[in-house]
Amino acid sequence: MTWSVGAGLEGKGVVVTGAAGGIGREVVRAFAATGANVCAVDVRSDALDDVVSGLDGSGMRLAEALDLVDLTAHEPFLRRVHSTFGSFFALAHCAAVLRRRNDVEDVTEEDWDVQLDTNLKAGFFLNRTAARIMREQGQGGRIVNFTSQGWWTGGFGGSVVYCASKGGIVSMTRGLARTYAADRITVNTVSPGAVDTSMLRGGLSDEQLEAHVAAVPMGRMASPEEVAGTVVFLASKHASYITGATINVSGGWLMY
Known about the structure:
Elements: E1 13-17, H1 22-33, E2 37-42, H2 45-52, E3 61-65, H3 74-85, E4 90-93, H4 109-137, E5 141-146, H5 150-153, H6 160-180, E6 185-192, H7 198-201, H8 206-214, H9 225-235, E7 246-249
Parallel strand pairs: 1-2, 1-4, 2-3, 4-5, 5-6, 6-7
Helix pairs in contact: 1-9, 3-4, 4-6
C-alpha cells in the first residue's frame, strides 16, 4: 500500500456534492490531487466551471449542475458518472442548506421543509442510489456524509432546524453503514466545527461569531482545506475498516 492520504483513489470515480461551497470546493481539489476522476456537483451551475478549472492531478473532470431535491435525477446522474469514468467508487456528500432563525417562533414550515428535504431526505436517497451502483460493481465503495457540531450540541445562532437535519445524518449514516458493510461499502460522517465559510458567517453578528470562535480551544476557525483531508482519508484504502464513524473536526470545541 502506498502511504499517501489518498491511497487507492487514482483512476477511481468520485462524486462531490455541494462542490461550489467553501468546503466542497476544497474536497474537489483534494480528490483531484490524488489522481481520482472527479465529478463536481452543485445547484449553482454558474460556479462549477471555476471549481473544476485548473485542478491538479491526472484524472478526468466533470461538472454537473443538479438540484438534489429532485430525487428522480439521482440515478440517471450517477449512472452517467459511472459510464463516463468507468467506475464509481466514492461519494462525498457536502451539499446542505442553513436558514437561521434567531427566535424559534419565527421558524416556518417552509424553513423546516427546505432544510430537511435538502440536508436529510435528499441525502438518504442519494446515499441509497450510490450504494446500489457500488453493489452492482462488486468492488466496494466509500460514502462520506457531512454533519455538523450541531448534531451533538444543538447548534447556535438560530440553527435548530439545521441541527435536527444534521442529527438525522448521523443516525442515517450509522444505519447505512450496517446495511452495506457486507458489500465492503463504508459509510462515515465528517463533523466540522467552526469552518470559515460563507454558510457559517451568514446571518451572524460580529459578536456572535467572536463568541463562537472564543469557545474553540485552538482559538480560531478552520480553513476549508483543513477539513478536506479527512474526507479523502475516509475514501482511501487506509480507512477500509472504518464504517459508521463520525469524525470530529472541531479544533477541540467538541471532544468525543
